[in-house]
Design goal:
- With 307 residues, the protein is mainly β.
- Helix content is 1%, strand content 39%.
- The protein has 1 helix and 23 strands.
- A hairpin with a 6-residue loop joins strand 4 and strand 5.
Length: 307
Amino acid sequence: MPGTLEDVTLEYLEGGVDVEMPLDVNSVFTYSDTSYPINSCSFHQANDCDGPTTFTSTDDLTVSSSLPTPIVSASVTNNLGYSYALCLRCSNGILSADLDNWRISQIKNPCTPGITSSQFDMIKTTAAFAPEIGSFSFPVFTEGCGNEISYEIGTEKKSGVIPKGLFKDVEQEDDQVNISIKPYLSEEFSFYLHASALNAQTLILGPITIKVACQINSAPELWTGSRFKANQQLIVTKVDTLPAFTFPEFLSDCSNGFPMISYYMSTSSSSVTASKLFPSGVEMLSDGYQAVLNTTESGNYTAYIIA
């Protein structure tokens, strides 16, 4: 007589182990004749029990028809879910019976696959100190189903194409992703970042532009900082002592003093034209710089600092 067995529906379980289902063929086929015991079984596609090709395994299901207990192992980690209909045919050497259209399903992951990028600058000025390797860093991305994300460098249409200024490997450390920049560069270059994960559409970000700021030939942006005072009242407190205009070191993307900043007192804002008001130029102090005025006479004196 035909076999009977309830269909199986499994829930998605992230990181779960396969569910093993041993089949008691005597119960499935309500068979109790010990004189002619069941001596062979095979799995087939549903509605093809007579087919010459047996069903062996997929990424989701693995079957074993070995007696006395055939076993079906079913995955519970398929994000998209699945459904398979099988036929189990067993024989006692004289007659055969079928359990046809037995269905095993796994419900899809209730999450929504997809990659969300962290917020980071598409234009990045990086401190790649010579001869050290610089780094373009950003927080890790997130994936809607918690799947691992891989990162690759490339062009807009193809991953794996590496600009000459970057190393190939993209490294992830805890919650940070790092792209290493080759030392001794003094240029600007761009690339695209490809982020991919299981069942998620690849996220392509770019162009990301890197400006290497702290090399021998670099020209990092400079600014004065909040402690700089352009207008100063200079008071002479000692005889034969000239007043001095003082200011702190300017700031830049390069925090290690490389390349070194040079300062000039000029009569022009567009070129270095030595100011006769400050004949000794700019001198370094322990906590900043000074430009000594060449007179103690009262008055307003103007010059430009060119850094």
